[in-house]
User: What shape does this take?
Amino acid sequence: MMHVRTRGEGCLADFTLDRRLARELDDAEETGVRAHLAICPRCAERYAALARERDLFAADAPPLRLPPRRGYVWPRIVAGAGAALAMAAGVALVLRVHDRDQGVRAKGAAARLEVFVNHDGVVRHGGAVETVEPGDAVRFVVNSAELPYVAVVSLDGAKRATVYYPSNGEVEAVPLGRAFPLPESTVLDDALGDERVYGVFCPRPFATEPLRRAVEALPDVSPTPDGCRVEVLHLRKEGRPSP
Assistant: This one.
């Protein structure tokens, strides 16, 4: 169940408070937010609560290291709660300390898809075109102003389509107006080459299997259901160098 915060008139949005925690505000924004927090106990209390939640989550997370590969094809979806929590901790930490110019969140963007990569236990924020390796774990962060229902579909170098999120086929609404890490991580398999990842943002629930089939049937066409918006990332999957 999604918790929705009730904001008082004139109070700061969680998105703004979260951007301050991630050190993304410019000087003018920082001055305005600091002044508001000084005179608004409700927002000051909410800001302190968000800071505590992040600190506790990061402190309680297990180490950020994946099990060693053993010469077989990794499963596409990380199902275990421990692995998902480890990746989540890495994303949370990077969101806190990354430079705002990297653009995890774009103010006013209608819909945005970001990727974080866990390579041998080190989590980094990926770009629009990101080089990865088999065995890397990826986790996606979405930010939507208006379209709450999201699916992430991949078309790999072998032209096979896979639904990365949601793995159970049940599309649920995500919080609007703030960066939201999707609650599943994916471990990349051994299919090398260029992989396109589509973030499909829609105003209402939709079925993911027809979307997956459409992506696979028309690999050169970006899927755009009616009323939806599509964001695209590119993963360039290269083989691990020989020891």
